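Why do we care about 3D structure at all? Because function follows from shape, and shape follows, mostly, from sequence. That is the central idea of this module. The next example makes it concrete: a single protein chain, its amino acid sequence, and then its structure expressed as tokens.
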Amino acid sequence: MPVIAALLLDGVPGHHVTTPALCFGTADRCHPWVSYEVRLCAAPGFRSTGGPSSFGLATPWGLDGLEGLAEADTVLVPGHPERPGGPPPEVVGALRAAAARGCRIGAFGAGTFTLAAAGLLDGRRATTTPGMAAGLARRHPLIAVEPDGEVVADGPFHTAAGVLGGVDLCLRLITLDHGGTVAVETERQLFLDLPADHGEGPDAPVSGATVTGDTLGPTLDWLEARLDRPLTLDDIAAHAGLTVRGLSRRFRAETGLPPLQYLLRVRIQWAQRLLERGDEPVARIAARTGLGTPANLRHHFQRYTGTTPSVYRAAFRSMVDSLTRPEDGPAERG
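And the structure:
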């Protein structure tokens, strides 16, 4: 099971502490083939989180013996208040050791300053919260600072703004591990609280499931590239080089769904993405997703998500507007 170790320095904002567990835990809960373990690792001197509502936190992991980081596949450094003299030497040593053994390392908000202080970002691209980007560039001129706060990947290092406690960074890492569909579904579950099973049972995989061996992977890619076209069982079976009965057996084994139910699910997922990212009318989305008419789209969409396309679009945009708020700054500094 991949281990995500969040390294907590004193004063880390509370939402920076909870976000990694929330994101990776939601990916776990909603996708049976996804598995993560999130460890909260207290750095030396850690006492409590920062404002606006600070709280104490006892964790079983720390830097003693590097137990919290030695087994980690990914180390995350959330934001924290600026500390005179920079991060503790033990933290610098632990991060350098993690980098030396090839660990993936991410930071958001002022956590980027900690990676920079450890010398890990010299000669690389990185980012932080936009309001702190100029300070990062001034203090660490060997770093090519990108000021917009979008997730930046350079080698094993991934940096981002701290807005929403690093949600964007966590979702990017989930995308790298399990694909965009899993990340999009995780984002929806996080912010819109949609039903996880969509009427198909809690263990039903969705588009993007990881399969191995002699699989339907090429056929699934072919199918998902042709969502706007009428597709029959015979069409799908012909592409897969199987009989219709063999196709149905293979689909159930690899996706948990019959072929046409899988196709419908992928079409609804594509409709969700179009509703989230653009202003196309429902009639156009119905045509692009192969669902034909607005009435047909509304029927299947409501059955799948529990709401209508127009309400879904409004809810998603309201969520984005309400949750995209300025981050606390380098006295948070992150």
